[in-house]
């Protein structure tokens, strides 16, 4: 562990173990952090499990580091946020029982052994003890290390997916992300869970959260193909099918998202939207509306997705966007047509339409262009302030974009001419 995490982070874990010792509780690092540590994948997103009162321990840890702590009493969990932004999730060791498939579990305090037994896959059941005298001891009660070595995703028991159907999505995410294989019995259980239609019982917010996790993977297309293999696209919408056309569009989306990421404009706020737009693209507009009404996506993103569905159903003559993208037009026309669209939509249009160059120019040239003159300059030139100013500035920008003015003198000349004609 010492060799695989940054030194300050190791000290933090070490001091956490010392604090645990002083407070007479046992503390373990668990789950994804341990899995990734053993695989050599950088991950400082640490989850702690406390045999004892997790919330009290989290508060003590927060005092020790003068950190912020937020608590969730119902679940016995807390999040400690250190001054440098590092967060540590702390949970009381607990058992969970499920009253109905897909429902949230009932929670009771227990031991690490019980806590690990409620987890999804063997590779996520590994724990590392942090207490000073046992720092670094690996707890492997379900053959997690063996499955990590064999690159296998395996559930702990036959009812796992019935207890929590979202684990089917999780299995596919880990399979694709880590390049692991599904254990044969686990794959059979997944197929059965899909056939049983357990997903219909998940609440929209859980289904949405799971779908977002899939789309937020580093390579979402692989994960979506994995969902399709298990016939799971039907839970996005029953009419949604994996076709070669969809696969091609998703690949093009992946390329466009990567291209945008290389522009150093800052990352897209919601890259996942671009993938949903591609998924929705083959659906008729009412099906898109149904899907977006069912998922609890944020408003801005939902509007962007609906916008595209609506754009396509309008008659061609009434869809200026499509016409502008199709024809050779002046840069100013491209700019005016595209300027109010969110970045995610532009990236999607880049993948979807033949107008790639227009979108490239939009991001790299048009959006950066400005006239040299501003309102104050127009005033200094003696032009009378009023709505004319906006018209002049708009026109100056068009002229810049189209290359019909090149210098400040050109701009002044154009501004004067417009003022005279008004
Ligand atoms: P990621 O790298 O995607 O964050 P992770 O394993 O850290 O992977 P989390 O969703 O943060 O995933 O969950 C932390 C741990 O909690 C998991 O490693 C697993 O042990 C457990 N866990 C999470 N979700 C479930 C679930 N639905 N059923 C059972 N155990 C779960």
Question: What do these coordinates show?
Answer:
The protein is of the alpha+beta class and 422 residues long. Helices cover 53% and strands 10% of the residues. It has a seven-stranded mixed beta sheet. It has 21 helices and eleven strands. It folds into three domains: 7-150, Beta Polymerase, domain 2 (2-Layer Sandwich), CATH 3.30.460; 236-367, cca-adding enzyme, domain 2 (Orthogonal Bundle); 371-421. Helix 7 runs parallel beside helix 9, helix 12 crosses helix 17 (343-352) and helix 13 packs antiparallel against helix 14 (299-313). The chain binds adenosine-5'-triphosphate. Adenosine-5'-triphosphate is lined by residues 31-32, 47, 119-120, 124, 164, 166-167, 170.
Give the helix/strand layout.
Elements: H1 7-22, E1 26-30, H2 32-39, E2 46-51, H3 54-65, E3 68-72, E4 77-81, E5 87-92, E6 94-97, E7 106-109, H4 112-117, E8 127-129, E9 138-139, H5 144-150, E10 152-153, H6 160-163, H7 166-178, E11 181-182, H8 184-195, H9 204-215, H10 220-229, H11 244-261, H12 271-280, H13 285-294, H14 299-313, H15 320-326, H16 331-338, H17 343-352, H18 356-364, H19 375-380, H20 387-402, H21 408-421
Helix pairs in contact: 7-9, 7-10, 11-12, 11-17, 12-14, 12-17, 13-14, 15-16, 16-20, 17-18, 20-21
Adenosine-5'-triphosphate binds at residues 31-32, 47, 119-120, 124, 164, 166-167, 170.
Care to give the gist of this entry?
Helix content is 53%, strand content 10%. It is an alpha+beta fold and 422 residues long. Bound molecules: adenosine-5'-triphosphate (ATP).
């Amino acid at each position: 562990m010492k060799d695989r995490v940054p030194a300050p982070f190791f000290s933090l874990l070490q001091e956490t173990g010392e604090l645990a010792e002083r407070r007479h509780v046992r503390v373990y690092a668990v789950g994804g952090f341990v899995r990734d540590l053993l695989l050599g994948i950088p991950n400082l997103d640490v989850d702690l499990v406390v045999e004892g009162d997790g919330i009290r321990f989290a508060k003590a840890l927060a005092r020790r580091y003068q950190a912020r702590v937020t608590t969730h009493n119902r679940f016995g969990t807390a999040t400690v946020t250190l001054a440098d932004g590092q967060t540590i999730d702390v949970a009381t060791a607990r058992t969970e029982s499920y009253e109905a498939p897909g429902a949230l579990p009932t929670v009771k305090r227990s031991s690490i052994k019980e806590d690990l037994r409620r987890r999804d896959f063997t590779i996520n059941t590994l724990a590392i003890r942090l207490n000073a005298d046992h720092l670094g001891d690996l707890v492997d009660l379900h053959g997690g290390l063996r499955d990590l070595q064999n690159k296998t995703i395996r559930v702990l028991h036959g009812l796992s997916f019935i207890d929590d159907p979202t684990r089917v999505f999780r299995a596919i995410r880990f399979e694709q992300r880590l390049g692991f294989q599904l254990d044969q019995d686990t794959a059979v259980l997944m197929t059965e869970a899909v056939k049983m239609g357990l997903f219909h019982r998940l609440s929209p917010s859980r289904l949405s959260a799971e779908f977002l996790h899939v789309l937020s993977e580093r390579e979402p297309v692989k994960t979506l193909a994995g969902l399709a293999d298990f016939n799971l696209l039907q839970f996005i919408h029953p009419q949604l099918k994996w076709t070669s056309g969809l696969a091609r569009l998703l690949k093009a989306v992946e390329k466009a998202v990567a291209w945008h990421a290389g522009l150093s404009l800052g990352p897209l706020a919601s890259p996942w939207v671009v993938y949903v737009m591609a998924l929705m693209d083959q659906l008729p507009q009412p099906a898109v509306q149904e899907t977006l009404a069912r998922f609890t996506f944020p408003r801005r993103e939902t509007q962007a997705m609906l916008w595209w569905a609506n754009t396509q159903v309008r008659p061609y003559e009434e869809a200026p966007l499509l016409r502008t993208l199709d024809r050779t037009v002046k840069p100013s026309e491209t700019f005016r047509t595209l300027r109010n669209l969110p970045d995610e939509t532009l990236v999607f249009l880049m993948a979807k339409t033949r107008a790639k160059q227009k979108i490239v120019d939009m991001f790299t040239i048009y959006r950066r262009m400005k006239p040299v003159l501003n309102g104050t300059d127009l005033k200094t030139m003696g032009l009378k302030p009023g709505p004319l100013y906006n018209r002049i500035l708009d026109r100056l920008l068009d002229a810049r974009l189209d290359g019909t003015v090149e210098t400040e003198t050109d701009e002044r000349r154009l501004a004067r001419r417009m003022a005279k004609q008004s």
